[in-house]
Amino acid sequence: MIVIENLYKRFGKLEVLKGINMQFNAGEVVSLIGPNGSGKTTLIKAILGLIKPDKGVITVNGATVNGSPAYRASIGYMPQIGRYPDNMKVGQLLTMIREIRNTSNQDTQLEEEFNMDLLCEKPLGTLSGGTKQKVNAALAFLFNPPVLILDEPTAGLDPLATEILKAKIAQEKKKNKLIIVTSHVLSDLQELTTHVAYMQEGRLIFKKDLPTLQRETGEEKLGLAIAQIMRQQKNTQG
Amino acid sequence: MKLTRYVLYDILRNKIVLLYAAFLFLITAGLFQLEENSSKAILSLLTIVLTVLPLVSLIFTTIHYYNSYEFIELMLAQPLSRTRVLLSEYFGLVLSLLGAFWLGVGLPVLFYSPDAIGISLLITGSLLTLVFISMALFTSVHARDKAKGIGLALLLWFYFSLIYDGILLMLLFALSDYPMEKLTLLLSALNPIDLARIVIMLKMDVSALMGYTGAIYKNFFGNAYGTIFTLGVLILWAAFPLGLAKRKFLKKDM
Q1: What DSSP state is assigned to residue A74?
Q2: ipTM of the assembly?
Q3: Which of A2, B109, B110, B121 is such that its CA lies 20 to 30 A from the CA of A188?
Q4: For A22-51, how does the pLDDT look when each residue is reduced to its tens digit (9 = 90+)?
Q5: CB distance from B209 to chain A under 8 Å?
Q6: CATH topology (fold) of A2-237
Q7: How far, in Å, CA of A24 to CA of A149, rounded?
């Protein structure tokens, strides 16, 4: 569904992406992990067309990123921190995004479970970080998109909201969607993950499915397996 | 443009634009009340319009752009083109600031002095608003840092309202032995605030107050052509920075 070929990006002197080749397919729930500054968010922003790569090509469902913006209709994006116009009300934001997307194929489940109707009249500037995350999540899932990109989705959410979101992701996973999750808190979403992509210093170290990973590291739990790999990486570097 | 509506709504909800409109209204109505002669009032108003309008347009646009940064990012993650997102930001700003100008200055001027001078003041004021919103959008799109963006906006204002005239005067003084008409014509076209002043002065027919550049315009074009030329150049001044801002915005990393 998403194919990334030979992607390079540098910000000034800092080379953030150093030749990424990667493929994401329908039905996968990919945990995109890596230390801070490894290029995860940059990669996601490149897929969304928010940053322009120096070299390389990304295609989403065959459409090249950097051409028509229409391909983004198939992507639901939940940003790391959602900041909105302070004066806009929650209800207006939802109405506005509905008008922009202009599709009848709507999925209001998260909107209902997060009780957005109670927030409708509240200006976005007065919401707490966690509540904004709920708004983000509701927006990302609202149009039933075949691709979901969630950047640190559970950061700032309370346990109840996290469970609601997890249940939702599990439900979408069954519909053969592609779900990409960046997260450093592995335990939160590990039971949903089918693949792990590990990035470090702008390179993709590997992308493997869960059974392979468990077999290779000899660890049953994803968190321990990742820790094992990070340790190995460190040793080979040092 | 659905997006423009939301940008506009956001701007109107923060009350600064309304305050700006009220401020302009008080000053304009006050000047007409104080001055017996309405063309004298227009002259004082002109000075205020030429200083306050560019400053408010520049600063308000810059601050609004940086405050909407995350919102713009959210819009760009939707199936919308970058041009459309930038233009809705632009038109939202234009509509709100023009609205404030017409409420604050337009209404009293149309009430007290609904003649050619009044109308040309309103037209040039509107164009100046467009010009400085375009310029501020251009600098904001270029500078990533908010403080730098505001600094650049202020610098533009100082340049066009103070520094430029100083340089122009120095140049004219130093080269006073040579025929300077055409050069002056060209140089004043390089400053939208000067152009706006000339448009009004051509209408007012007060040659003593017109200053050197105004007199040259009058001699060179006569009233009608001078006005058309200056208005045309002002429109270019609005379009050009907007075009540059768009070009940069299309390539920009968010």
Answers
A1: G
A2: 0.85
A3: A2
A4: 999 999 999 898 888 888 989 999 999 999
A5: no
A6: Rossmann fold (3.40.50)
A7: 11
